Amino acid sequence: MKVLVLGSGLMGKGAAYDLVKQDSVEQVIVADIDTKCAEALAKEVGPKAVAETVDATKKTQLVKVFSKVDSVISAVSYTVNLLHTQVAIETGTHMCDLGGGWTIVEQQLELNDQAKDAGITVVPDCGLAPGMVSVLAREGIEYLDRVESVKIRVGGLQQDPRPPLNYSLIFSVEGLINEYIEPCVAIRNGEIVIEDPLVGFEELTFPEPFGKLEAFNTSGGTSTLPHTYLGRVNNLDYKTIRYPGHGHKMWCLMKLGLMDNNELDLDGKKIAPRQVLEKLLEKNLPPSGKDVTLVRTMIEGWKGTESRNIEYEIIDYHNDVTGLTSMMRMTSFPASVTAMMMADGRITERGVLTPERCIPPDLFIEELRSRGIDIKHRVF
Fold first, then answer.
1. Of 114, 214, 269, 360, which sits most exposed with the smallest number of CB within 10 A?
2. Which residues pair with 307 in a beta bridge?
3. Structural domains in the chain plus CATH codes
4. What is the pTM assigned to this prediction?
């Protein structure tokens, strides 16, 4: 099979690195608007990879390169995911993306019938959260006869936390602030509710050296899960894991208006506080260094008349051999696995479908484990 990776940034690199190692992948096209970046990545990952210059916002260029492959991974800004979905339908090419914006996903889902008619599968939100955790939740939910609660907790952290926020930019600052300001969708007592971000603090404990951590509401992690499982699950929510104290500091910045997009007039100059904050975070947060990703997904309910608790836990570290960060692996590998499963027929559903609606959990988890992602699963 031939796979296109759009974007040669961190996540594009992770996807390309994984794809070239798979026997069933004949060629990986690495495409970027920056020719030198695409060529450098193609050279780095190996002879199966070739570089092309593509502007991810230009339909004519996209049509040409989509038509060369069996499957596409869009690893660029979420703002072009709708366009990429339209091009995938036009060219009859399977596609997945890393998500990042719920309003865009809603528009993609409206193209479901067109994708079916084209005989293809498009999977939005196919990264870590939403993405990998959505499929884990599906497996746990389907195991039980009745489900009381689904709790998804995820965090990308430095192994060696450093002030002032005990955090570094594991992924884009734009995506980080979006998680901290946009509304959070959950299920409470059998109803879909909208909750505020940066509230709902709880304490949780991971094995040493992590110990006690905090988790709090952030947006985006549930994606379509509340809509998919409304009526099947009584309570469902998503929270981000951080070192203690981080969330309250970000809450203060948000309440002070430093995450606002509305421009202020400062001596005749229009400045959006969020733009200033983004620049300051990029400038002053410490280098990411070696990172770690923590995942804990907990499903509670009943199997027959007996209560059951299902837990999935992942502690994934920066890979010193490959140089890939944990966040690169945990975000891009689910997309590369999905791209392959669409192309080789293991994903059989057609249309625009989020991960929990089309990805077979057992096959997906097996593929991730084969890549060194240690997914611990227990039922008690």
1. 269
2. 302
3. 2-125 (3.40.50.720), 132-324 (3.30.360.10)
4. 0.94
